[in-house]
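Question: Send over one sample?
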Amino acid sequence: MQHNIFTTMRSLKMMEGCKGTQVYALNQSIDGGGGGVGEKFLQNLLSKNSIRSRSNSNFQAVQSKDEVNSVVLAEAFASYGLPKTDQLEPQIEFCLKPMNFVETLADVYRRMEGCAQFDKSRMYLEQCAIFRGLPDPKLFRRCLMSARLHAVDVHSKVVLSAWLRFERREDELIGVSAMDCCGRSMECPGSALLAGYNPESATDPCMCDRGMRKDEDTEIYMDEECSTSLSRGDEEDEDFDMSFCIGDDEIRCRRFNIASLSRPFEAMLYGSFIDSRREKINFSKNEISAKGMKAAEMFSRTKSMDSFDPDIVLELLSLANKFCCDGMKSVCDAYLASLVFDMDTAMLLFEYGLEGNAYLLVAACLQVFLRELPNSMHNPNVSRLFCSSEGKDRLAYIGHASFLLYYFLSQSAMEDDLKSNTTVMLLERMGECASESWQKQLAFHQLGCVMLERKEYKDAQKWFEAAVEAGHVYSLVGIARSKYKRGHMYKAYKLMNSLVSDYTPSGWMYQERSMYCQGKEKTMDLSTATELDPTLSYPYKYRAVSMAEENRLGRAISEINRILGFKISPDCLELRAWFLIVLEDYEGALRDARALLTLNPRYMMFHGKLQGAHLVEILSHNVQPCSQADCWMQLYDRWSSVDDIGSLAVVHHMLANDPGKSLLRFRQSLLLLRLNSHKAAMRSLREARNQATSEHERLVYEGWILYDTGYREEAIAKAEESISIQRSFEAFFLKAYVLSETSPDSESSLYVIQLLEEALRCPSDGLRKGQALSNLASVYVDVDKLDNAIDCYTNALNIKHTRAHQGLARVYHLKDQRKLAYDEMTKLIEKAKYNASAYEKRSEYCDREMAKSDLGMATKLDPLRTYPYRYRAAVLMDDHKETEAIAELTKAISFKPDLQVLHLRAAFHDSMGDLTSAIRDCEAALCLESRHADTLELYQKVQQRAKEQLPT
């Protein structure tokens, strides 16, 4: 009965559930045939025609352009409709989500420390899977680098090197090919094909150039040796004591040399066989040509393949397999692998590698396929190999099928097309290769998520259940959602209710349970979800849409502003734009649409029916047009008011007017980094590099890419190369910035000051010079030149670098002028649109009660800032309220496992005598950063105390 009720409800003309993070409208489609309102609205507005009424309306053509645009927007909006609360759904996370994250981190760290060296790569891969769900991408990439660092076999090196490259998306850089070496051993395609374990050398610069010169020298030498051998063979027939006959050809050989190739040859030539007593042996039926046999004879003397053509080497590979010539096979394999450098060669040789069981050759071809992702998967032959069970079995036979391989392939496929059959099949192969519990949990859970997106709810439930059976409790959320989609709402509620009862409550548990209840109970669950985890976006969105349904649009915008104040996301920006359009605040809606498109250029608005770029074009007709000069003025205003979203929108507008401006792309990337949108920032940075019109500018952007992906020394080298071509602000600034983080000693600080002074002598705009002045002042503070710092901060403020107020306050504080420091931060709070950090910093310059008030405001504006939690916990600890202090830190850790917070909680546990909890928190913190000195010291101290307390 329940199923029938829900089937009937679904049959109504209501839009289907919100997928991913999109916000969907109630009316799910635009009329077909002659074109719906949305289509007419686009056509009429863009062609500037008058608007005609629909069949059931009596609107007349409107002559005023403003009126035309308003009517068009009104009709379009009526077609798409406002979002409805019953159509919103929270996103199910695709990653591993442990029930107790801290315990999981501690367990991984313990096992990492106790495992054998050769197992460390596997352990780091598990750590990668756990860190994938964290907002900081650097943690995942660092684990991936560590996994590659400790990789032993060629297969793992090939996959991990390609994955590291994929994370940087170097394929998007113009002029860079898939097999180019970036200069680092860990990502070098040549280094990946070298077997063996040497983690120390993996961090060294790549020796590709030196290796190539060595190979060339060797080739010349070997060619001379081969020609000498051939001439000697012609002149001294007495060296040959037997022949192989192939057709009409007779290949003269030395019996001993051929016998030394393998045991079968030795048995044939020196054993009890008839051939061992013959001088001439008929070799015609062994599928090798006379030319190939001559090459085998030459190899028996020279042990080299360098003078042979590839087709001859393929013949020798076949002969080596047939007669178990391991040495010759190894040389053939390595030689053929060295020929693979692009997709065409890889496709040509891959089948030979599989047929000839050539491990290195297959690895080399595999490397090309992986480095060309996702494009290589569009090749049907490559797709068939990886996706089919038969292909996986063939790879497994030669040692190249692994969970690691299919983990990488499936992640790439999900980014390329989440709902595709390719994604499903790769995840299935990933599940088949899974051997450990966490691997099965991940593969089955992701299969469930993909099936849910494909609306195959029965299969989704099956895979989620398999993940739960493997130990992934979070997959119960997927089971509940699948049941709900199949019409079993009460069963879904009951399942989530039991989860809340059986485990330590988390925000996501209440968020999910709220899906399956109504009224006051739903409101309470959403409030609890926000209280436990203020970073969850669904509760804010639901409350905002609910207010909009009650025509309280001002309150709705305020609610969505709460999360946009500390966590920018396309779906929340879309929702706010939606509300602003209803209020006819087209300028605000245009700002949000532009910012949204910066985060995701392909975003589809209004239930996926309207391209974001089209909405921008429509809204642009309803706001005052502005020139590029006007945009620069707006950018200065937004920048000085610390309005990052507004600044992002202005830059998007400027790029629309001047799309080839690399400097604007670079500025865009800086804003995105400030908004913690790392992936979008790197995309903008790559575009800046591609659009650079000069070599010195291109080098600077490449340097920033290297710095942002963890390669600081290489970034400095790029800056120096750029300076050698042309002295520029950005090159000096890049070098100074990287050096200030790499070498914090006083001598380096003085050098950084010189570099920043050189930067300020070069031409640049005021926005960048303000930043440079602020950075220079900060270094002056480090070397105790406070008066110089004040001058720099003051100059920065004179060119509207508002953030300099914070630095100036710090200097006043160091000069023991707390009142001036407090006043300086108050100025920043008054000027800044997003001022959580300002409240946090001002708390340092006032008494305890005022500090508590400021930190409370900082947490309200941005709950992700951890300092307020640490401060409040320290105050509680001073007041001997240990339990409350631990609870304050635990609250923050539950949604943001921060290194500093974990360290502080470990110290508190230690002071309370709870050594077990202290050890656990230390281990969790060290899992995040294994070299954190303070935590290492505390960990060793607590471990020693724990040993002393053990009974003798």
Confidence is low (pLDDT under 50) at residues 1-63, 210-236. The first helix runs from residue 2 to 11. The longest strand covers residues 242-246.
